[in-house]
Amino acid sequence: MNISYVHASKFGNGAAVAAEFRTRMASRGVAVDVHHFRELKPAELSPADLYVFSSPGRMGRPLGGMRRFLKRLQLPAGTRYAVLTTEMAPPSGDDPAARQRVRPIMNEILQGKGLVRVADDAIHVTGLRGPLEDDWREKVEAFASRVAAGDDQPERVPVGHASPEPDDGSHTPPHGDPLL
Prior knowledge:
The chain has about 180 residues and is α/β, with parallel strands linked by helices. It has 5 helices and 7 strands, in the order E-H-E-E-E-E-H-E-H-H-E-H.
């Protein structure tokens, strides 16, 4: 398996998460090629079995440069991907989904292109520039495990839906196209 990890780290948190993911996957015998999105052209990504996209949140959304990169991305329909973001930790007792839309926005863009989500998750930062939450390495390990396990069972999530649908072949998304 070969993974291409594209991040938009601004203060080094996303780059640290990407490096940790690469280490965790290497221990499983999986090669991970890590790049900042500014190093790449969205129409010229190297072939990979899976693409991981990562962006910090800014005002609850992915960075503008990463959103533009994803919108210009040219990968074949059915390409498998995962999303691992770095987001501000919500105030205690607050619902993170109420403030952060980073992953839903990224998933909407990617699924709108016909890509198939394997996994997504967020690593929290405790301040505007970090540091990462205390257990971030354990969260990266759990994400790496889901990605490795997802090799045979990608989540099939139509655009606009928040959770995986059963893959019994009978579900058709609201826009009328069958699941990929």
